């Protein structure tokens, strides 16, 4: 059986953070029985284009506004304090040093990102540093198949039929978390802002107000 409690790590550009992010984090927190989920905005995401990316300070502030007062949600500026690309393995190593070898860390990533996991820096080390929770929206796959684990790490995993998850040689667990479908994307939100359309009920009210106040994502209008 998987351990309960611990800290979930939810990284991303959050450009901007929206209700889909928040609902996914809440369902993982509940489904994995985590003590908290930490949102970790990337300073310089290695797998995404910089064009259209709000400043790290603005994205951090939007995340802070989005989770303010929400039990079980916290914000970490860990990646914003490092130079160069924001690699997840570096973040997890820093957090492992912070919480010690025995505390549970659960690294949260999407289904699409997991299928590109083999391109990530030192991805095999991530499995040895934390549990990995792959979130997916409908149509849900029946399960996570063994041949979907990146080849270089595959031999280190064994299937646990009781929990329908895979256990790594380190003791960490790779599992699938099915979440509610909310058809919201940051790209669509940015496009709506740029064409002067409403984003109400797609982002938290304080995030919407911040985007307006700062003039974010508006074509031809530099952020204030």
Topology (elements, then pairings):
Blueprint: E1 7-12, H1 19-31, E2 36-41, H2 56-67, E3 73-75, H3 88-99, E4 105-110, H4 111-114, H5 123-129, E5 131-136, H6 151-154, E6 157-160, E7 165-168, E8 173-178, H7 186-194, H8 205-214
Parallel strand pairs: 1-2, 1-4, 2-3, 4-5, 5-8
Antiparallel strand pairs: 6-7, 7-8
Helix pairs in contact: 2-8, 3-5
Total count of domains: 1
- Total strand count, please? 8
Provide the succession of SSEs.
EHEHEHEHHEHEEEHH
Count of helix runs: 8
Give the biggest beta sheet.
8 strands, mixed
CATH H-level superfamily title: HUPs
Rounded to the nearest angstrom, the radius of gyration is: 18 Å
The proportion of residues forming helix, as a percent range, comes to 25-40%
User: What's the overall average pLDDT, rounded?
Assistant: 92
Name of the top-level CATH class: Alpha Beta
| Oligomer status | single chain
Low-pLDDT segments, ≥5 res = none
Strand order, sheet with most strands: 3-2-1-4-5-8-7-6
- Portion of residues in beta strands equals 15-25%
Shape: globular
Distance between the termini: 50 Å
- Write down the CATH topology: Rossmann fold
Helix-strand category: alpha/beta
């Amino acid at each position: 059986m998987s351990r309960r409690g611990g800290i979930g790590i939810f990284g991303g550009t959050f450009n901007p953070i929206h209700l889909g992010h928040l609902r996914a984090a809440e369902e993982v927190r509940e489904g994995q029985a985590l003590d908290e989920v930490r949102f970790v905005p990337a300073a310089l995401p290695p797998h995404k284009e910089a064009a259209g990316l709000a400043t790290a300070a603005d994205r951090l502030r939007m995340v802070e506004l989005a989770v303010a007062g929400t039990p079980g949600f916290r914000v970490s500026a860990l990646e914003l304090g490092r130079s160069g690309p924001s690699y997840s393995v570096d973040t997890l190593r820093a957090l492992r040093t912070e919480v010690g070898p025995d505390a549970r860390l659960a690294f949260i990533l999407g289904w699409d990102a997991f299928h590109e996991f083999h391109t990530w820096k030192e991805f095999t080390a991530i499995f040895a540093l934390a549990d990995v929770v792959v979130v997916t929206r409908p149509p849900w796959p029946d399960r996570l198949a063994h041949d979907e684990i990146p080849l270089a790490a595959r031999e280190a995993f064994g299937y646990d039929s009781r929990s329908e998850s895979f256990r790594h040689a380190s003791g960490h667990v790779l599992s699938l978390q099915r979440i509610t479908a909310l058809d919201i994307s940051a790209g669509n939100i940015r496009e709506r802002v740029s064409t002067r359309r409403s984003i109400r009920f797609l982002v938290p009210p304080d995030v919407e107000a911040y985007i307006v106040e700062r003039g974010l994502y508006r074509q031809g209008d530099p952020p204030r």
